[in-house]
Amino acid sequence: MTALTLSTAGAATLRADALVVGVAKGAGPKSGPVLAPGAEAVDKAFDGKLADVLATLGATGAEGELTKLPAAPGLKAPVVVAVGLGPVPDKEDAYDAEALRRAAGTAARALSGSKKAGFALPAGSVEDAAAVAEGALLGAYAFTAYQGGENKLAPKAAKSAKENGPKQPLAEVALLGAKPRDKAFKAAVERALALVEEINRARDLINTPPNDLYPESFAAVATAAGKEHGIKVQVLDEKALVKGGYGGLLGVGQGSENGPRLVKLAYTHPKAEKTLALVGKGITYDSGGISLKPAGHNETMKCDMSGAAAVFAAVVAAARLGLKVNVTGWLALAENMPSGNATRPGDVLRMYSGKTVEVLNTDAEGRLVLADALTRASEEKPDAIVDVATLTGAMVLALGNRTFGIMANDDAFRTSIHEIAEEVGEASWPMPLPADLRKGMDSPTADMANMGERMGGGLVAGLFLKEFVGEGIAWAHLDIAGPAFHEGAPYGYTPKGGTGSAVRTLVRLAERTADGDLG
Questions:
Q1: Do residues 312 and 217 lie in contact, with contact meaning Cβ atoms separated by under 8 Å?
Q2: Which residues contact 71 (CB under 8 A, 6 or more apart)?
Q3: What is the DSSP string of 275-317?
Q4: Cβ of 397: how many Cβ atoms within 10 Å?
Q5: Quick check: 352 and 316 in contact, CB under 8 A?
Q6: What average pLDDT does this structure show over 313-336?
Q7: Catalytic positions, please?
């Protein structure tokens, strides 16, 4: 994990491999690059002509743009990195927090392999400093656990591959322009560090190959984290699931040699007045089961446990931050595989709630494991439940690859979560639960089917889950199928692979709940 410090040094005197400054895109007569606050000392070293030099090099200040240039005499760092912030804000110094996160992430990615970089981006307020810290730490992430190992057949080739392989993340971020002795700034940076460490833990889990991450091993990771952070962990294995009647989890997992698990993580605070339950879909690999996915649709299905990873990370983050709220995480873990023991289309499962479900498509398995976990979570009567899942391709078709959908049984709660997601920089959109779509899940054989109308499939899945939420409990469903796993080139602070989508939203929700603002 990249180290983060609030530097007491100025930009000119900081000894580092590079200095990062912000550049905005001017409008009208000043359409060229405009230096953002924080760059004053660096500009002075360039005799006040840094913006002109950047313009000569083609920089415009557009978001995501990055320009490297040799440092001027008088700067201890040898390189200056100018990163685009987008349009100059209407109000001076009022840079959007998400623009700062993305700019810091872009710079941190570009500086992989470096030991230390000073970030002289706008950081005069606590909010700006936190955004820069989050973005830099998120952008510095790299998953290299399976790269650069020893090749016993060709040791020389292995050594060369290790030396020329992926660069290690930027080792240290020195945040400049903040107030290192101010308690509020210190707290903000400590929060950012704890939050991003848990987001990166989620990313690591999502990126881990399914031959190493399966329900039992995921449960072991959760158990170890629980011991480290004072979280009570309970793991239900196959025998316990059979005894408890968890038909959804067992039905999905019975085709695999790696049996299912239901993991409960309980963080409690002695002064808590509210309890928040988080439920995560944890399909550690999804082949589709007997309803097998076609080639081209199963290569990234190790990411189908992203919801459980987000829930796990959020509970640990709440514990590390000492939030005055009880947060219980439920990880519904299974591997969906075809075999002679696998659930078949047409089979009927008796769920933990007692409802029977006719399985029309074994590739609509996430809703089955979530249903059992939602029912179990409801038994403890929390003040609210939020489930997170890479649930439907239909949601990706509706909202694209960067936005998750929010459904809920309470409009005010849905609005609150949408506002929180936007506040923390996670793109989301509220979606309806049309009652007329429920009829499509009627079954002549069971209480309901796990499939309904094809059109509006993401909404149908939400309606299915709603059936398993306890009466009188506020509930929301986040379908993160789009943003959970990024297959394209990295951008901003978003890496290729697992992203840790929804963790920031869940943690902020827990903070609001602790403050008495559940929504």
A1: no
A2: 19, 45, 77, 78, 79, 80
A3: EEEEEEEEEEEE--TTSPPPTTSSTTGGGGGHHHHHHHHHHHH
A4: 12
A5: no
A6: 98
A7: 293, 367
